[in-house]
Amino acid sequence: MLGLTKETSIPLKVKKKEAILMNTTNPGVALVTGASSGIGLATAKALRNAGFRVFGTSRRAAAERSDGITMLACDVTDDGSVAKLVERVLAEAGRIDLLVNNAGMGLLGAAEESSTAQAQALFDVNVFGVLRVTRAVLPAMRQQRKGRIINVSSVLGLIPAPYSAVYASTKHAIEGYSESLDHELRTFGIRVVLVEPAYTRTAFEDNLAKPDLLLDIYDATRASMDVINKKAIEAGDAPEVVARTIVEAATTIVPKTRYAAGTMARRVSLLRRFVPESAFDKSLRKQYGLPV
């Protein structure tokens, strides 16, 4: 992304108290949505290895696992399904200390090519799915006066994304929701944290939704964007890189507001903050093969 050829130096200094980790011998109970594959599965395994008792979700009932992860069916677009999920986890474990909102879907196409209904369906998973699960776990977290919520965002929650405008807008929404919610919940001993991956080597790209109102005028550029995205995915981070960042965000006593997951994500985050807007704009358009 952004066609950089030189490594960006990233400061690694943190306050001592931010480097202290929580008790990893018994860190508690974790719930990870969208844990059947990709980042979600890697995260569930990493949290299990870190000592958490882990419950993962998938839209359909999953086979019994032998790695200590309990998989449960949940459709994050359905209030009743979410309520049953949280009730079952609390019945079995008695508490929820960590929620990782990872379930999501993608969409590649010009903004004009998606109907309002298609955009609403994407928001129902990527945004309102996060809201549903978060609202369902908050009463238990407030009662125990302890909890952490990690929302898996994206660098596309920070930067423009041509031909991913609707998807990027869901991630921008999650950024605003998470930062605002964190301020509301700190009084109750609950923190809300963002983890922002860049391109990650998962099947996410293969499962991208296509626009429901395809227009010929966008065919060539849409196809070009598809090729660019696939190449970037192939060269991207392994899902385990993102999982390690999530474990760090979950176990640090005083977490940061957001964690960029992987070298490219950290680079993009720094560039977005410090590079002049005009230069950033020009670099992004060159990267995507758009006229500068």
TrEMBL record:
InterPro entries: KR_dom, NAD(P)-bd_dom_sf, SDR_fam, SDR_oxidoreductase. Keywords: Oxidoreductase. Belongs to the short-chain dehydrogenases/reductases (SDR) family. The lineage of its organism: Bacteria, Pseudomonadati, Pseudomonadota, Betaproteobacteria, Burkholderiales. Residues 28-201 form the Ketoreductase domain. The keyword RNA-binding does not apply. It comes from Rhodoferax ferrireducens. This is Short-subunit dehydrogenase. Pfam families: adh_short.
